[in-house]
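Posting this for the archive.
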Amino acid sequence: MTAITFTERFTAAKAAGRKLLVPYITGGYPGWADAVRAAAANGADAIELGIPFSDPVMDGPVIQQASQVALDGGAIPPAIIDEAAKLDVGIPLGVMTYYNIVHHDGHRRFAGRLVAAGISGCILPDLPLEESRPWTESADHEGVETIMLAAPTGSDERLARVAERARGFVYSVGLLGVTGERSELAATATATAARVMRLTDKPVLVGVGVSNAEQAREACAVADGVVQGASVVRRLMEGGPDAVGDYVAEVRAAIDAG
């Protein structure tokens, strides 16, 4: 299956001045596939698909809860990836999971699974840049774009190396801590994004702590777009796929209005 890549879609969007919106949705949670379709139909530029893991060090309470429901329901990585192959939503798909899952499967095998399912990107938040080469070389070989995280604590020299290694886009981490909704956008979110923007021509998206439409608009005043996780997953848990679609449409309108 030929995947739509983040690079081609996001680079074109950036050139056209379109701000990028990437919702995170927990794979395996009841209704997740319909939530992906609803997000795509309401203005998402790509989907970050979570593959649940039992020790999710970057995930806050909302995503942990959704992941646990998925795991308790029998969700396993190959089944989620196989289901994703049936989505046909016309936008890039990426997975976010943890390195143990990739290591257990084998780098080339895991990357091959993604490619076969039409998934073009992968985020591994617990795999540091300095230890990433075995995975990134396998991913490059198979045709998977490794999306790297740029942390607020990184020096400009290190952030430049992260951006150079990144494929598709650079994920600028909004704050130190786990994912979750906050009442205000952290000052580090825009400050880090601005630093990374100066170091690369690749699209830079802010994620972690971007909690509503207004905060997304605020982040997009500096960055090329946003990744939203807990606020999306909470709506899936409370209101189902339609609530996800409504929320994505709200955020889309806010960032388009600038």
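The mean pLDDT is 94. The CA atoms of residues 78 and 126 lie 20 Å apart.
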